[in-house]
Design a protein that fits this description.
The protein is α+β, with helices and mostly antiparallel strands. The chain has one domain. The protein is about 35% helix and about 25% strand. It has six helices and seven strands, in the order βαβαββαααββαβ. Strands 1, 2, 3, 4, 5, 6 and 7 form a seven-stranded mixed β-sheet that branches. It is globular and about 60 Å long.
Length: about 160
């Protein structure tokens, strides 16, 4: 199967010289999640924008090739409510069954934070979930984000 790596920067647009390419990564950078990484030609950012709009509605706005962080309060409240709901379903009896523990593991999947998509942010290759948790912790409303290269990987 294939997925994408999206390069993104905060504050300053990325220019062609700044774009990361497949040869910038060593196998030890990606062997825990991919067989190989490859450059992608003629790829559009629309795919990522659509994913962000669908997965994280109300977190970013888009104007051209610029993403503006507007905040994650609504997303975080919904995420927390999901965790609370699952926690309230637990009992000492249900804790004996693996299924109930699996529900907690799937919280990030249900909130779309865990996908196969990877991000290259601040010189670090990370999961989409780790990227978003970093943004939630560090970004302030009206912070600007810019996309760089898009890479393909096989897993």
């Amino acid at each position: 199967m294939h997925s994408k790596i999206y390069q993104i920067s905060k504050g300053q647009p990325l220019y062609a010289d700044d774009f990361v390419e497949a040869y910038d990564f060593q196998p030890e950078d990606y062997s825990h999640f991919a067989d190989y990484i490859d450059n992608v030609d003629n790829e559009s950012y629309d795919e990522l924008y659509q994913a962000l709009e669908r997965l994280l509605e109300g977190v970013f706005t888009r104007e051209g090739d610029e993403l503006t962080y507007i905040g994650a309060e609504k997303f975080m409240v919904e995420w927390l409510e999901l965790i609370k709901t699952l926690a309230n379903e637990l009992t000492t009896e249900s804790m004996k069954h693996w299924y109930d523990f699996y529900k907690f593991r799937s919280v990030n999947e249900r909130t779309h934070l865990e996908t196969e998509t990877r991000m290259y942010y601040d010189g670090e290759l990370m999961s989409f979930g780790d990227f978003m948790r970093t943004i939630f912790a560090e970004a302030k409303p009206n912070d600007k984000f810019y996309l760089g290269s898009i890479l393909d990987f096989h897993y």
